[in-house]
Every structure is written in C-alpha cells, then in structure tokens.
Amino acid sequence: MTWFFLSFLTAFFEAVKDAFGKQSLKQVDEYVVSWTLSFLTGFFLLPLVIISGFPQLGNQFWLALIFGGTLNSITSYLYIKAIKVSDLSITLPMIALTPLFMLITSPLMVGEWPNLFDFLGIFLLVTGSYLLNIKEKSKGYLAPFRALWVQKGPKLMLIVALIWSITSNFDKIGVQNSSPIFWLFAMFSFITVLLLPMLLYKTPNPRQKILKGLPILLPMGLFCSLSVMFQMEALTLTNVVQVIAIKRTSVVMGVMLGYLIFKEKGMKERLTGTLIMLLGVIIMTLF
Predict the structure, then answer these.
(1) Is 60 exceeded by the pLDDT of residue 48?
(2) Distances from the Cα of 115 to the Cαs of 168, 229, 285, in angstroms?
(3) From CA 176, how far away is CA 178, in angstroms rounded?
(4) How far apart are CA 142 and CA 82, in angstroms?
(5) Average pLDDT of the residues in 275-281
(6) Contact by Cβ (8 Å): 128, 275
(7) HSE toward the beta carbon, residue 85, CA cutoff 13 A
(8) Beta-carbon neighbour count of residue 25 at 10 Å?
C-alpha cells in the first residue's frame, strides 16, 4: 500500500498549494502565479535531479514531453484562472471528474481498462457534481448542471480535468522513459519556457510583481514540488487511475480550506456533493 500513502501525500500538498495559490491571487495576477509556480517547482526539484543523476531516456520521452508539456502549460494557466474567479469549494470538485474522463483515455493510451465498480464510481461522481449546485434545482432538474457550466471557474476546471485525463497518461509514459524526478524537472522547465511569452505580454513589470508576491509564491512552489514528486513515485507502483483517484481527495481538503480560510458560503451542499464524489473515487480505487 505504499502507493496509497504516496498518493495521499500528493493530495495533501496539492490542497495546501491551492490555498496558497488563491491567497497569492490577491496580490498578483494569474499570469504571474502560473509562471512562477512552474519556475519554482522546477527550481525546488533541481537539487534532487543533481543527486539522483541523469537517467537514460527512452524512445518515447521526447514525444511525451512535447505533448504532455504543451497540454500542461495550458492547464497551468486555466487552473489558476479558475480558482481566481470562483470559490475553491465550487471549483476544485470539478477536478474529481478526471478519473471519469480517464476511463476513456487510459484504455486508449496505456491499455488500462475499467470494470463494473468504475461505472458505479461514475454514477457517484455525477451525483456529487449535481449536488454542488442543488439550490439551483428550483429552476429545473438540469439547472445544477447548467450552473456548473455557466459559472466561469467550474467551467474552466472541467476543461482542466478533461486535459489532465490525457496528460496523466503522458506522465506515466514520461516516467517509464526516464525517472520520476527527472521527468518532473523536465516537465516544469518545459512549461516555464512555454508560459514565459504570455507572462511578458500580459503582465507589465513582471519581475517587480514576482518579487512582490514571492513570500507567498515560494511556499506554493515548494508544496507543488512535493505534491508532484510523490505523485510520480506512486505512478511507478500502480495504475494511473488509482493514483489520480486518491489524489482527487485533495478536493475535500481544498473545500474545507476554502471554508476555514476564505469563509466561502454554501458549504453544506458543496461539502456533501464533494464527499459523494470522493466516495465514487474511492470505490473506483479500492475495486
């Protein structure tokens, strides 16, 4: 069960990183946050790369880096934008839908097929996402789903979940063709380079703004590096969908942090929906 412990640590540090990210957006814009997060994560991983050494690269490494890195650069920006424009308690649960999308992408990309319990998990994921906006039901039975799509934060995070269902498989390919630490360093370095033109174009005086937000951006980068490091190690021990499923427990932690730190409203419905989604994730994982 080592993979389970590593995946849980991934979830914990992911939730803490999100809280720091939400807080940092009060000082700097999403372009600064997304670029600095990638840069600092790579920076914190560099000593581990030096210690572990340069691995032998497999034939599929560069293909995985180009496609996975390009898609992850898109999600890096969309993720930060999503938590900026909407509450954590309504936005973060959307990423719990990643295992749902992976029931399609994982068989096609890495040959991992779903079973009966996966489909039960899908039902619970959809039910939980419905309950997130259950107050909208007075406008029609499909109104809770429409509310998720209309609100900008959840809509952006749903796109992130869909893209992550693809990039998680590229992560496994990348790890198999290098090493967990080196893959992460290469990935975040690649994302940093791709996001730099957008930062320079969208943000006046980016250097000054990065220095201004550095006290809160630094721990965000540290927690992100810890999260992805544990995730990549877990991917070497079990299937992609199991690691990502446990990682998604971060949404419950994130919802609670949204209530405790940012005093977000509607927690009864949102926490109930999130817990049902988490139950679906756990069923998909255990069976």
Answers:
(1) yes
(2) 19, 29, 11
(3) 6
(4) 23
(5) 81
(6) yes
(7) 15
(8) 19
Which pLDDT score is estimated for 261?
Answer: 80
pLDDT of 98 = 72
Contact 114, 107 (CB under 8 A): yes
Backbone angles phi, psi at 286, to 5 degrees: -70, -30
Q: What is the pLDDT of residue 140?
A: 60
Confidence (pLDDT) at 251:
78
Query: What is the dihedral angle through the alpha carbons of 207, 209, 210, 216, rounded to the nearest 10 degrees?
Result: 170
> Quick one: 58 exposed, middle or buried, by C-beta within 10 A (0-12, 13-18, 19+)?
middle
Chain position carrying tokens 């949102």: 270
Annotate 187-203 with b (16+ C-beta within 10 A) or e (fewer): bbbbbbebbeeebeeeb
Compute the radius of gyration of the chain from its Cα atoms: 18
Once rounded to an integer, what is the mean pLDDT over residues 126-146?
66
Query: In Å, what is the CA distance from 34 to each residue of 179, 188, 242?
Result: 25, 11, 27
CB 92 within 8 A of CB 247: no
